[in-house]
Design brief:
Elements lengths: L2 H36 L20 E6 L5 H17 L2 E6 L4 H13 L4 E5 L7 H9 L3 E5 L6 E3 L4 E5 L3 H15 L5 E6 L4 H16 L4 E7 L5 H16 L5 E4 L3 H12 L9 E4 L5 H9 L5 E2 L4 H16 L35 H9 L2
């Protein structure tokens, strides 16, 4: 090989190296800017400002996918509160975290002939036949976390599905890991393959971590949410043996994984802060807020505005009853860390934006 050819190859390699470094610097800058935006106070109400006045004498049944899940019960509280304001009767049925339980709850709700049913936290495809039965009976069906995307679901027919876009949630969690580690995160992603929204969120987080050339995606670990707390000690011990110090960041689709992980981390001598950074891309449970506030094995969570989403579900039902289209409202993603944990309802261990959303919905409904 001639000296000229060698020089050209070295020059090309150098250019590639410089280009890769520039791309990595750009990613870090973007990630850090995104984190700043996602942790900012939420003071502006960017939801709907017009809509139909309140329909009179209506009833709504909230089917809780699992009465032990903090996110599901938080939305239920919002639906109940908003139903009281708009003047409707409210009832809740617990699906008890199983497919059979969801089926039983759906059947009971349909038999009661309410004006509307809220599918609260389980996949619409799982109960397609019963949702279709409700629609044919003239019952409005809306949902929270019944599919991977917000907005109407065509099959089975759901007027609208309320959820924070998974792309936004995944981006906030993954970018926090990239920014906080300065591009050196070794990541395990925890998800539940039984739910489409969980898998979509996990895959989106994994794809973003892969764009960080100096980060490492160690594994996407499947563990059902329903059995996460008793299973996670053994799962955690196994992962620590497998990866050791290479595992320094966790991205989970729900805080509940960290509820079960803490005992194993403590027993293994893992420091509560700085050694294994745990980030949840969803839920914002009370225990997660407490861990973040106390610096105990969790750095961040991405809570949804559960009470606000409950109010939105009631508003969406009211739009459906009036023959109008869904509002297609979705609040921007919000990242909670120790630095901002006491803002926007965080002092009460929840994300409740201080943007007067209750007053805005009352104005729309004439209440």
């Amino acid at each position: 090989m001639s000296n000229t050819t060698t020089a050209r190859l070295l020059s090309a390699a150098l250019l590639l190296s410089v280009s890769a470094a520039q791309a990595q610097d750009a990613l870090l800058t973007k990630a850090k800017a995104y984190v700043v935006s996602a942790t900012a106070p939420v003071t502006k109400c960017n939801g709907p400002t017009t809509g139909p006045k309140a329909a009179a004498g209506k009833s709504v049944i909230y089917i809780s996918g699992d009465g032990n899940n903090g996110g599901i019960t938080g939305v239920a509280a919002g639906v109940k509160e908003a139903a009281g304001v708009i003047g409707w009767t409210y009832r809740q049925i617990d699906g008890r975290g199983t497919v059979a339980g969801h089926s039983t709850a759906m059947g009971q709700a349909i038999a009661l002939k309410p004006s509307a049913i809220v599918v609260g936290g389980f996949d619409a495809a799982e109960q397609a036949d019963l949702i279709t039965q409700a629609d044919k009976a003239g019952i409005v069906v809306v949902a929270w976390h019944a599919g991977p995307q917000s907005g109407p679901i065509a099959t089975p027919k759901i007027f609208t599905n309320v959820t924070t876009p998974i792309e936004s949630t995944a981006t906030a969690a993954a970018y926090y890991a990239i920014a906080n580690s300065d591009g050196k995160a070794g990541v395990v992603v925890f998800t539940d393959s039984t739910a489409r929204i969980a898998m979509a969120k996990a895959n989106a987080m994994a794809d973003i971590i892969k764009t960080c050339k100096t980060c490492t995606l160690l594994e996407i670990r499947n563990q059902a949410i329903a059995g996460a707390i008793p299973a996670m000690p053994q799962v955690t011990s196994s992962l620590l043996q497998k990866y050791g110090n290479k595992w320094n960041y966790s991205l989970a689709i729900n805080d509940i994984y960290f509820d079960g992980m803490v005992p194993a981390l403590s027993a293994a001598g893992i420091k509560p802060t700085g050694q294994l950074i745990n980030i949840s891309a969803g839920d914002g449970s009370i225990s997660a807020y407490q861990r973040i506030r106390d610096g105990q094995y969790q750095d961040a969570t991405i809570p949804e505005p559960l009470n606000l989403q409950g109010w939105q579900l009631v508003d969406e039902i009211n739009r459906a009853l009036a023959g109008q289209k869904p509002s297609n409202y979705s609040i921007p993603v919000h990242l909670v860390t120790k630095a901002n944990i006491n803002a926007d309802g965080g002092d009460k261990n929840l994300f409740d934006p201080q943007n007067n959303y209750r007053a805005e919905y009352r104005k729309i409904w004439g209440k």
